[in-house]
Amino acid sequence: MGSLFLILFFISFLALLIGLIKPNIVLKWLPEAKRNRKSVAMYFGIAAVVFFILFGATASPTNDSADADNNDQIEQEEKAKEEELKKEQEEKIKEEELKKEQEEKAKEEELRIAEEEELKKEQEEKAKEEARKKEQEEKAKKEEQENAETKSQQQAVKMAQNYISYTAFSKSGLIDQLEFEGFDNEDASYAVEKIDVNWKEQAVIMAENYLDYTAFSRSGLIEQLKFEGFSDEIATYAVNEVGL
């Protein structure tokens, strides 16, 4: 509508200009006596002013609407920027919280590892302390047993060590030898149990001694070793070791 009034305004203004120069051209419908510049100014001047006012009246709401739309667009853009900024701030806060959470987890993990290492160290120290305590107890028990030995038992142990140092004996053979020397069975058995002897090695040494001084068959040597007090298993082992 505003465009129509604008066109009419220009037509009226153009007719006003032409009429002021040649009134007869634009006022053909009037009597010739009234075809003058005054009539042109009255008709077309008033028309131009009216159409211009109407154009202004109808164009104004359009401009207001455009301004309103422009304001709405600006407001929406500002709102979008605010939302974007808010979103960025929220993302930043979340990222900081996540980073803080990860740091706390890392600290907790370090603390847990440190506690485990400390506990392991304490357990190792405790195990060492227990082993040391046990060793001391065993040592004390051994010393107590040694101190608890009777004079006769001490002598029996010494004689058993002397016999083993220069010739081979079976366990039962050494007990018999100590009893032959005058010790009772309890002291003799105590002494044989007390000394550290590998009875298989004793059987091998005795088998070699027998073969050094006389000949034996395999079965005969086994029987001789069994006669000396060795078990069949140990006697057989010794004969195998000497290669018979």
Describe this structure in words.
By secondary structure, the chain is mostly helical. The chain folds into 2 domains: 81 residues; 92 residues, no CATH class. It contains 9 helices and no strands. It starts with a helix and ends with a helix. Helix content is 85%, strand content 0%.
What is this structure, in a nutshell?
This protein is mostly helical.
Rg from alpha-carbon coordinates: 66 Å
The overall average pLDDT, rounded, is 84
Q: Unreliable runs, pLDDT <50, ≥5 residues?
A: none
Q: What number of domains?
A: 2
| Residue fraction in strands | under 5%
How many β-strand runs?
A: 0
> Could you spell the SSE succession in H and E letters?
HHHHHHHHH
Write the layout of secondary structure elements.
Blueprint: H1 2-21, H2 23-26, H3 37-148, H4 151-166, H5 171-180, H6 185-194, H7 199-213, H8 218-227, H9 232-241
Main attributes of the structure:
2 domains; 9 helices; rod-shaped; 244 residues; mainly alpha; single chain
